[in-house]
Amino acid sequence: MTDSPRDRGTDPRTRTDAETDTGTGAETGAGTDAGTGADARASAAPGAAPSRRALLGWGGAGLALGAAVTGGAVAVARSGDDMDPAGAATGGAVAFHGAHQAGIATAVQDRLHFAAFDVKTTDRAAFVQLLKDWTAAARRMTAGRAVGEGAYGGPAEAPPDDTGEALGLDPSRLTLTIGFGPSLFEKFDLAGRRPEALVDLPKFPGDNLEKSRTGGDLCVQACADDPQVAVHAIRNLARIGFGKVAVRWSQLGFGKTSSTTPHAQTPRNLFGFKDGTRNIAGTETDRLKKHVWVGEGDEPAWMKGGSYLVARRIRMNIEVWDRTALQEQEDVFGRDKGEGAPVGKAKEHDAPFLKAMKPDAHVRLAHPDANDGITILRRGYSFTDGTDGLGRLDAGLFFLAYQRDPRKGFIPLQRKLSASDALNEYIQHVGSAVFAIPPGVRDADDWWGRALFSEEA
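Predicted structure:
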């Protein structure tokens, strides 16, 4: 829900702290995904031929993404490895290729730019080409390279291939994660390939969802340690998709609110509490396999190695909370505010005695031990978006939850929380979406969504 004290006032471009991951959400366990990898191909010489987009002009058929004129050597994390202290300290790249998409179990970065898109084209071939172009651009940006032929040096008569605001910046552990919403399967004759687990979320008690912040045919989650790197990535994908897709809504986030790194300090949310102590660690491959990744026997086959994402924009009533007595605040969470220890315990990571907490305490209701082991991987961020026009902060948690099946993860958990969680007095869910997250891009010939759109899939 928010940033931890050690992160505030720190420029992510100069940070050397190796503890970079975090998640957000209820006390339900969370994990991390394999890394996202750098393109191994070398950059082309400055004299490379103009891109096809430059020759065709704005709005031409697919964007041909050639080698970049800019870029250089970067530290690359091992694919599938959540622990990369060297890469974290140097702002290096996270491997793009792998069995799973990066940005799920990957050590959580400091900043987020999340965007949901509506598909505007009815041409299946054009949309497939867009996914290929997006993959090529993502491969380059996660490696710290410019898109296509770069932001300058190309034909003066055509827009540059890259918008340029990330020039000179490190990769900052940028990860890009794509997802497909239920509404996408109403297009391009895909109804028969919609996963049964990709259900429309029910309306939960207390929801006050804004249509302008709900749903979407596609989503792209950009996480990085530098906010400009994350924004640059979404901006370029939106530019490449012009005429085929349009941004439906987006959310900036800061300050990770949970950790997926073992033994790391749990970050604090905007209420000042540590939340998500039992989050799945990126090294816990057994828990990831059980709770996060779509596996053998799950349908459809094209989703194997993928996951399901629930995104919720949760408004926090900051002003009311700030006038609430400390004891009540601690009773609401079931933890003390200083150490973060469960009621009656001394340390944050001490096993909680749930019955010692108030019956409606957040930790007691959300803990896996109180929910038949339900565990989700949380990866949320805090946000502040100005005021609501009534002198109150528009602030809260952008909750991101990855799981193997929302019907067995987020949905039953949220039904319980929305019915009796004491925290409901201080929060309200105002935005919502669910997406199928396809498996990772395997190699340089693969692309986002290939298994879904391939005839043999």
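Summary: The radius of gyration is 21 Å.
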